[in-house]
Design brief:
By secondary structure, the chain is an alpha/beta fold. 34% of the residues lie in helices and 24% in strands. Bound molecules: S-adenosylmethionine (SAM). It is found in: Nucleus.
């Protein structure tokens, strides 16, 4: 079993502004652990996590793939999250380059068809559109969950960029909930972009039915 990264350096004060790892984080870690063998054997060079929050997920991937052969890049709209991600990488001896940006915006051109492991645990909770817009602007805790219509407002934008980002052997791991309409997401990625997908894990936690979906070419 791969241990959960050490987050002991993060304080209550950090979690006032940064998403504290929860069931959605843990199902993602479990999904990545399930794929650990396949991930290692693909020898990924670039791992990009969108919305890294505490940095727990990228540090976990770092413990699967090692600190020296893979470049770990993350983005988050939340400045505090970028700081925590860097600290968590440091605490767990995984060098992480954390960029304060929306989705992959500043990296799109340079990372075209270059990302071997792409990860997003998005703000997936259905809310009014205005609430999601406001949360994106404020870039604080509500930005971690407010997902607008069907919880897909932010995810939808990334889905249209995935094919452009993935390398020929790239894998994309996405967390979703039932209200996001997982079959529709999978159909759309196949029909428009020719990406195959599989539900790696699904589980009920509290009031949520969570999924980890893996997309490949
Ligand atoms: C559900 S939290 C997940 C955090 C962490 N990856 C985890 O699994 O614990 C979603 C994260 O996405 C970030 N986020 C929201 N909208 C974003 C956007 N447009 N671009 C980048 N990050 C975003 C939030 O600030 C938050 O840190």
């Amino acid at each position: 079993m791969i241990p959960t990264p050490d987050l002991s350096h993060l304080t209550k004060k950090d979690y006032e502004h940064v998403y504290e790892p929860a069931e959605d984080t843990f199902i993602l870690l479990d999904g990545l652990e399930e794929d650990a063998g396949k991930l290692r054997s693909a020898h990924p060079r670039i791992c990009l996590e969108i919305g890294s929050g505490s940095g727990c997920v990228s540090s976990f991937v770092g413990s699967i793939l090692g600190a020296s052969t893979t470049l770990y890049l993350t983005t988050d709209i939340n400045f505090h999250a970028c700081r925590c991600t860097r600290q968590t990488g440091h605490q767990n001896k995984i060098p992480i380059d954390a960029v304060n940006a929306s989705l992959a915006a500043p990296l799109m051109r340079r990372l075209r068809h270059a990302v071997d492991v792409l990860i997003f645990n998005p703000p997936y909770v259905p809310t009014y559109s205005d609430e999601a817009d406001d949360a994106q602007l404020r870039a604080d805790i509500p930005g971690a969950w407010a997902g607008g219509k069907d919880g897909m407002q932010i995810t939808d934008v990334l889905l249209d960029q995935v094919e452009d980002l993935l390398s020929p052997v790239g894998r994309f791991y996405l967390v979703a909930v039932k209200q996001n309409d997982v079959p529709a997401i999978r159909r759309r990625m196949l029909d428009i972009y020719g990406l195959q997908s599989e539900v790696v894990l699904q589980r009920r936690a509290g009031g949520e039915h969570l999924y980890v979906i893996r997309f490949t070419r």
